[in-house]
């Protein structure tokens, strides 16, 4: 008789089977949005500081 191998249920950490990748797109989107927000805030802060320095050195 030939042995039959039954794959483990989805989501199990059985060696030899790939891990499910269902959450990867959501994680990539979350990371992209976090990066975009961080860069936007950094740019806004840099512009605000540059504007403050410019107004301090205005002699008009």
Describe this structure in words.
The chain has one helix and no strands. With 60 residues, the chain is mostly helical. The longest helix has 33 residues, at 24-56.
Secondary-structure blueprint:
Layout (H helix, E strand, L loop, with lengths): L23 H33 L4
Keywords: Membrane, Transmembrane, Transmembrane helix
Our measurement of the CA-to-CA distance between the termini, rounded to an integer number of angstroms, reads 96 Å
Strand composition percent: under 5%
Largest sheet: none
Radius of gyration: 26 Å
Number of helices: 1
Order of helices and strands: H
In short:
By secondary structure, this protein is an all-alpha fold. The protein has one helix spanning 24-56. The protein starts with 23 loop residues before the first helix and ends with a helix.
Labels describing this entry:
single chain; 60 residues; mainly alpha; 0% strand; rod-shaped; transmembrane
């Amino acid at each position: 008789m030939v042995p039959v191998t039954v794959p483990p249920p989805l989501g199990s950490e059985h060696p030899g089977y790939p891990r499910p990748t269902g959450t990867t797109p959501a994680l990539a989107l979350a990371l992209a949005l976090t990066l975009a927000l961080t860069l936007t805030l950094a740019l806004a802060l840099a512009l605000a500081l540059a504007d403050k320095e410019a107004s301090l050195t205005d002699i008009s």
